[in-house]
Design goal:
By secondary structure, the chain is α+β, with helices and mostly antiparallel strands. The protein has one domain. Strands 1-8-7 form a three-stranded antiparallel sheet. It binds iron/sulfur cluster (SF4) (2 copies).
Length: 233
């Protein structure tokens, strides 16, 4: 979620039917037990992640190195449930189909297990229950675990707490990413300038020569610019 497609999905929540009632009564109606069908891990456009997920993976030593190659950023300029302008870090899916949906790189299709189960993103922990800042809702009504099992009052309370944390963490992350992006750009530009300033006169001349050479070099001729060969008989 949280790329454009996921944000759109979340904008049309299926409300948890029992939201207005006391938890004791809700537990009788909102039931969920994962059947491990794997649909939510194989049919997604992306999985949003948060600073808390990143910090946890970094604390887990080299684990971040396994996750990092699968992370990307997306800018959202459309309104979503959290903000109007945001940059969302997310896990990029693989084998994406014509509908923009694919398989999570951490999903073991053969054994139907999550390879990072012990440290999965908070978004996956709370799935399919979500929170939009005002109320709880089912983010994916096709989840076949809905209505199954016998969820206890405590389990529902715990799931709701996780859904609220997911909402707060995603809001904090996406909103912070916008100013952070500007800070990073300025930081890297400053670093580049400092590196150039540290060059010796000789290296500075070599660099200038390289830059000038690349400016002077003519563009490669395109195929269509090649004269056509003609044969006269
Ligand atoms: S779609 Fe629902 S039942 Fe299937 S694996 Fe995901 S959470 Fe479990
Ligand atoms: S991180 Fe794990 S639980 Fe989340 S989508 Fe990927 S495989 Fe599924």
């Amino acid at each position: 979620m949280s790329t454009k497609k996921e944000a759109k999905e979340s904008k049309q929540p299926v409300e948890e039917k029992t939201d207005e009632k006391p938890v004791e009564k809700e537990t009788a109606k909102f039931k969920f037990e994962c059947t491990k069908c794997g649909t939510c891990c194989q049919n997604r456009s992306s999985i949003p992640i948060t600073f808390t997920d990143l910090a946890r993976w970094t604390k887990q030593g080299s684990f971040i190195q396994i996750i990092l190659p699968h992370l990307e950023l997306e800018s959202l300029s459309e309104a979503d449930e959290i903000s109007k302008i945001a940059i969302i870090p997310f896990i990029k899916m693989k084998d994406i189909d014509e509908n923009g949906k694919g398989i999570c790189p951490f999903y073991d299709v053969d054994n139907k297990i999550c390879n990072i189960y012990f440290t999965m993103p908070i978004f996956c922990k709370t799935f399919p229950l979500s929170y939009n800042g005002e109320k709880f809702y089912v983010s994916d009504s096709t989840c076949e675990g809905l209505g199954k099992g016998s969820m206890t009052k405590e389990a529902l309370l715990e799931l709701r707490k996780t859904a609220i944390s997911d909402y707060n963490q995603r809001a904090e992350t996406s909103l912070s990413m916008v100013p952070l992006q500007g800070m990073f750009i300025r930081h890297f530009m400053k670093q580049s300038q400092e590196t150039v300033n540290r060059l010796s006169d000789e290296d500075q001349k070599k660099l200038d020569a390289l830059i000038n050479k690349s400016k002077e070099e003519p563009a490669e001729p395109t195929e269509s610019a090649e004269p056509e060969e003609t044969t006269e008989s």
